[in-house]
Amino acid sequence: MLDRRVAEGRIPGYVAAVRCRGASEVHASGHAAFGPDAAPMAPDTLFRIASLSKPLAAALTLALVDGGLLSLDDEIRRWLPEFARPAVLRRFDGPLDDTVPAARPITVADLLTSTAGWGLLLDASDLQAAVDDRQLGPGPVPPPMTGDEYVRRLAELPLAFQPGTGWLYDMPIKVLSVLLDRVTDQSLGELLAERITGPLGMADTGFRARSPGRLATQYAPTTDGGLAVFDRPDGVFAQPPAFEDLSCGLVSTAPDLLRFFSALADGGDPVLRPESVRLMTADHLTEDQRRQGQDILGDGHSWGLGAAVAVESAQPWMVPGRWGWIGGTGTSAHVQPDGGVAIFLSQRMLADAQEGFDDFWAAFAQV
């Protein structure tokens, strides 16, 4: 099924990793790029995992909560005074100067649940235009600025809704990235290695490709149905970023991600308490918030902390309690309620639902 997509030229290659009933397997197929001189895809090929970084952001935050360094109820203004007095639009599509004060402070939990009031507005609005002008929105690469500059620019803008009342995607995790840096006075790279990737043996996961020659070339769909190079191995992720952004900024491998998601599927040891894993993978949205996020979350999904959670069997292969997420660069990872784990990494940016490889997930659910 997947090899056919490689043979048809729809993707240069892929790496899939699965764990089922205690047995694990990693399979690589195709090449790390198109062209006769491209290296074969290998189990340790590096990928830009884009929004698949978000579950690691949540796990890192919860590890700090477990360690007593912060609480989910903490107000973010304690570490981010830029957001001490946020304004809120009267209407999310209204003019930027038509605002009211926030009814309550923004909390750490609001960032993890994406209910803080920032995020991607799919409809045209003055707020979305201002976000775009300031280069603050979602993307497959981190914003071209430091984290401190990011929050400074964002603080100039009002929230789209009162904290905790709506749901918008992505930008709260960028803010969370800056907050974690300030809470610990450590770089996120150091903190992630200390709390998550180091204990789990995820040596290839970080904010840049330490071995660029192993990084797959990234492609984006073109208007004529083809693919064009978006980022080469010696491109954006070959250098340390100005902003260590856990919303989209990590590179990783299928074996590393299998270690991470398997550890959480088994209760979190040695990085999280079981109670924290349950909190991360529980549904934290209201029905109204789920409806607001449906275009991003998809049918049958809600949002936990940094990851989507299935709440309905909207597809035959969807099981309530299944959780995980996807990255716009062609990456996916999900955990079944029975502890099964599946990772799929490719280098073709997703353009429609069919390219989300639902047939792969359907086949895995039947194993």
Overall description:
- It is built from 12 helices and 13 strands.
- It has a 7-stranded antiparallel sheet.
- The longest helix has 14 residues, at about 170-185.
- It has about 375 residues and is of the alpha+beta class.
- This is Beta-lactamase.
- InterPro entries: Beta-lactam-related, Beta-lactam/transpept-like, Diverse_Enzym_Activities.
- It comes from Mycolicibacterium vaccae ATCC 25954.
The CATH topology of the largest domain turns out to be Beta-lactamase
CATH architecture assignment of the largest domain: 3-Layer(aba) Sandwich
How many domains? The number is 2
Structural class assignment: alpha+beta
Number of strands: 13
In terms of per-residue confidence, which ranges show pLDDT below 50 for 5 or more consecutive residues? none
What is the CATH superfamily label of the largest domain?
DD-peptidase/beta-lactamase superfamily
Strand content: 15-25%
Shape from CA axes? Answer: globular
Distance between the termini: 15 Å
Protein name: Beta-lactamase
InterPro entries: Beta-lactam-related, Beta-lactam/transpept-like, Diverse_Enzym_Activities
Organism: Mycolicibacterium vaccae ATCC 25954
Pfam families: Beta-lactamase (PF00144)
